[in-house]
Amino acid sequence: MRPKIKAMVLAASAIASLTAASAGCSTGEDAYARAREAMVRTQIAGRGISDALVLEAMLAVPRHRFVPARLRGFAYVDNPLPIGLEQTISQPYIVALMTESLRIGPGARVLEVGTGSGYQAAVLAEIADSVFTIEIIPELAASAAALLDSLGYDAVIVRAGDGFDGWPAKAPFDGIIVTAAAPEVPPPLAGQLADGGRLVIPIGDERQDLHIYEKTGDALRLLGTLPVRFVPMTGKIRSTGKE
Fold first, then answer.
1. In sequence order, what are the residues at sequence separation of 6 or more whose Cβ sits closer than 8 angstroms to the Cβ of residue 194?
2. Shared domain check, 133 and 199
3. What separation, in Å, do the N-terminal and C-terminal C-alpha atoms of the chain show?
4. Is there a single domain that holds both residue 68 and residue 168?
5. What is the pLDDT of residues 162-205, one digit of tens each?
6. pTM for the model
7. Strand duo 193-204 + 173-178: pairing
8. 35: which strand partners?
9. Which domain holds residue 210?
10. Are residues 126 and 16 in the same domain?
C-alpha cells in the first residue's frame, strides 16, 4: 500500500474511533492519546526526528485541542489544518522539525512570530523555560492565549501585534521561530537572537524554503534549507518591502 493511501486509511480509522468514543469523555481522551502516540511514532520519529525532548513534547501536547471542534478527528493526521481567518495549524512533522532545528533545551528563552492556534508555542513550552509569541491577528492572539492558559502553559506569554519588530524588551532569545513565510529575515529578529542561538524561518512567496540559521557574533550562518508551504507573513514586512 502506498504511504499516502495508507495514511488516509489510518486517518479514516482514527476518525471513526474518535467519533465513536466521543460519547464518553475519558474514553475519548484515551483515543486521542492513542492517535497522538501513533502520530509521534510514525510521522515524527519514523521520519527522522530523534531529539528526545522534541518527541516527548509532541507526545505531551493535545493537538486536538488546538484545532476547530469539527476537525478534531483529523488532529493527528499528517497534514496542516485550517483554523479560521485564512490561517492554518502546521503539519505535525513540520512542527517537530522546526522545534528540533532550534536545538533548545531547559532554561531557553524562545520567541515565536505567528502564534496561530498556539500549538507550536505549547510544544516549545514543553522544552523551553519561557516562550514569547506574537500574533498579528487579534482574534487569534486572544483565543490562543485563553487556550494556553486553560491548559496550564504559564510559561507562554502571548501578545497581539506585528512580529516584524520582534520583542526587544524580552531579548535576547536562544531561539526564534517564524511560522509564516517572509521574503527575507527581518533585521530586528536577527538582532534579538543571542550569540549561538538559532533562527528558523520560511523564506519565499510562490516558492518557499525553510531556512535554518545559527548566529555567531553579528552574523547569521545558513545551516540548511528544505521546501515548505506556509501562509504569508503580513504587516510591516509587506508595506515596507523589508522584514
1. 172, 173, 174, 215
2. yes
3. 44
4. no
5. 999 999 999 999 999 999 999 999 999 999 999 999 999 999 98
6. 0.88
7. parallel
8. none
9. 87-240
10. no
